[in-house]
Amino acid sequence: MKTPFVFGRLAKDNNFTDRAEETAHLVTNFKSLINTILISPRRWGKSSLVFKAASIAMKEDKDLRICLVDLFNVRSEDQFYTALAQSVIKSTATKWEEAVANASRFLSRFVPKVSFGTGPMDELTVDLNMEELRRSPDEILDLAEKIAKEKKLRIVVCIDEFQNISSFGDSLAFQKKLRSHFQQHENIAYCLYGSKRHMMLEVFTDYSMPFYKFGDIMFLEKIKTPDWVEFIKSTFDRTGKSISDEVCGEIVARVQNHPYYVQQLAQQVWLRTGKVATIDAVGEAHSTITAQLSLMFDTITQTLTNQQLSLLRAMSVGEKNLTSQAVMEKYGLSSPTVISRARKALVGKDILDNIAGNYSFQDPVYAYWLKHHYFQL
Ligand SMILES: Nc1ncnc2c1ncn2[C@@H]1O[C@H](COP(=O)(O)OP(=O)(O)OP(=O)(O)O)[C@@H](O)[C@H]1O
Ligand SMILES: [Mg+2]
User: Fold this and answer.
1) Is the CB of 174 under 6 A from ligand 1?
2) What does the pLDDT look like over 130-161, one tens digit per residue?
3) What does CATH list as the number for 19-219?
4) Which of 88, 173, 227, 258 has the most CB atoms at less than 10 Å from its CB?
5) Domain with residues 225-299, CATH architecture
């Protein structure tokens, strides 16, 4: 039998739980063409949520198209334009022939020769003529608006890992250019999302930045325990196994409601369960996952400085007042300035998260590994 839990891929249909409010909010924004910014740490479910809301919105509004652009591997303006053009063409056509026709019609200057494969639309790639592109990138930025107008559509352009634009060559100038185009589009809304909270906040909440007050900012929260419990129970039920509320609660608590890990841990428990899941199975499954990741955790930890490690050690013990003289002395932290520098570096390395001045570990399994295996507390 196929294992029933999903992690590392989009959570869809049966595998998507809760998020009713956030989904409804996003669907409304999409249908009303309200620009949205969605922020959450890695693997909390941004992409799954956007995909879900996009599917619902498109079902409810036949003239709406959702265009998904992923900047995960995009490191330059040129690559950005290519990714954007490709996704816009893909999302506004239902058949190959239509995509080809659109590309030759709207991108003729950039695509001297249009050639497409014969596979599914997902595999469509558009190669743009870079020289031409550098001469007039504006046309690509306005491509969605142009197609929307002609075809009487409305399009939501969703850009994943948006924070990557801050690493482009002249990022500020690029952001200015993007914003000035985006705000003229009448038939397009933008949904910009990403996981590097500090970088996203810089782009969207700093008043000196071009994207300041660009749209509705949503901070995605973790999925609540009762929703997880119901989800895990029904997934076990569906596959002829059973699990108590208590054991479900233990799965969720062990990984602090982290969506990816809840699914992974539930999967490991499911694999260890004949008929009825036990608490012991949760402990074993958690150890297995921690062991699988320990090499990676070790590698990450080796890149840390002594002061960063001291800070993590104090946090692992649960110290609250890190800048107090006693705590600094106990853990060998030399000054409040050093602590703040170490925190900043750890946020930059995606180890800590800064939520309104409260620092916490991003990865609950790494936090566990550090505490119990590395520091052996
Ligand atoms: N609503 C949900 N219901 C159940 N599981 C979910 C949900 N959202 C996310 N997950 C779990 O979390 C994993 C990561 O989800 P997703 O890829 O959507 O997150 P993300 O925030 O886009 O991650 P990344 O930062 O890596 O882009 C999924 O594979 C799934 O296991
Ligand atoms: Mg994602």
Assistant:
1) no
2) 888 888 889 899 999 999 999 999 999 999 99
3) 3.40.50.300
4) 88
5) Orthogonal Bundle (1.10)
